[in-house]
Amino acid sequence: NKQVILKNYVTGYPKESDMEIKNVTIKLKVPEGSNDVVVKNLYLSCDPYMRSRMRKIEGSYVESFAPGSPITGYGVAKVLESGDPKFQKGDLVWGMTGWEEYSIITPTQTLFKIHDKDVPLSYYTGILGMPGMTAYAGFHEVCSPKKGETVFVSAASGAVGQLVGQFAKMLGCYVVGSAGSKEKVDLLKSKFGFDEAFNYKEEQDLSAALKRYFPDGIDIYFENVGGKMLDAVLVNMKLYGRIAVCGMISQYNLEQTEGVHNLFCLITKRIRMEGFLVFDYYHLYPKYLEMVIPQIKAGKVVYVEDVAHGLESAPTALVGLFSGRNIGKQVVMVSRE
Ligand code: NDP
């Protein structure tokens, strides 16, 4: 059983050498009397929150990875044997699994049986999985959006951002996204239907860039990056604007996080800024699937993935999130079936 092991806790930017591939023998059997599920992993998801699990954390919503053990994360898998009556041999599932060829997992709230196989299976790590739910719940539940409002999305071409932009367009909003390369900016406009997009790395003055696209201000900011971008957005928000704080990837590798200077705008502009975690919204998952699967099949919602092939490519793929190497949702294909 090939595995991706985290060697040690990480400081600063993660490197491929923080992980190693090991081959171990495991017994592919459900332990007597347990409700564990033995699976073959097909697709693994690379997600920014995994960076926080590479350090020693206490009292957070997730646990640290165990150095010397396989990395864990979201994935799509096939059930080989099940001690849980909810799952049968041959079922396809998505949820928390290991970065290895085969895993023995204890089903938690986030192990879902896949019913609709008429879409690419890897989508269950993205649009039909955790990032999809993040975009849906974050936009519709946290942002309180209304038709005609102005929306700004950062890290807009990524797993979550590309969907937030499309959901906002479906509602009839004016949507602008930022991303870190020309290729990504082009994708935002040509593929995902953003009204405008810009490369934040090429802007000397982020606030001036936002003013260019939002002369009358921003109603909704879907925050994925934090830091300087948040500061620039705050001064460009409209009265009674909403900020959904989904993530702050620009801060994840810093030993000392940057300060935010313009928080006083929350008061003067009566802005509501709200953090959220997707886990609190999984009860909406069936409703989300009912909405999004027909939209995918009709080609009205599109999804771009960046697929790395083979478990060996997983460390490079994961590390690449923090330099913007991924174009779209970063997935690792372990096995096609
Ligand atoms: P992405 O697919 O967007 O991948 C990460 C992207 O972030 C990179 O491609 C890069 O794009 C951008 N990035 C990396 N470093 C920086 C930086 N220093 N400054 C600005 N941008 C940077 O990831 P996801 O869509 O999966 O996640 C987006 C955000 O949502 C993350 O902050 C994540 O933690 C958060 N999240 C939160 C959840 C929740 O429950 N609250 C659930 C899921 C995700 P570029 O080339 O544009 O710089």
From TrEMBL:
Name the domain of life this protein comes from.
Answer: Eukaryota
List, alphabetically, the SUPFAM superfamilies matched: GroES-like, NAD(P)-binding Rossmann-fold domains
Residue ranges annotated for the Enoyl reductase (ER) domain, each copy included: 37-332
Q: Which InterPro entries match?
A: ADH-like_C, ADH_N_2, ER, GroES-like_sf, MDR_fam, NAD(P)-bd_dom_sf
Q: Which UniProt keywords apply?
A: NADP, Oxidoreductase
Can you tell me where the transmembrane regions are?
none
Listed GO MF terms: oxidoreductase activity, acting on the CH-CH group of donors, NAD or NADP as acceptor
Q: Does the keyword NADP apply?
A: yes
- Entries under Pfam families matching the protein: ADH_N_2 (PF16884), ADH_zinc_N (PF00107)
* GO BP annotations, alphabetical order: response to oxidative stress
| Protein biosynthesis keyword on record | no
- Which protein family is it in? Belongs to the NADP-dependent oxidoreductase L4BD family.
The annotated subunit structure for this chain is: Homodimer.
Which protein, by its recorded name, is this?
A: 2-alkenal reductase (NADP(+)-dependent)
The species is: Nicotiana tabacum (Common tobacco)
Q: Which gene encodes it?
A: LOC107830910
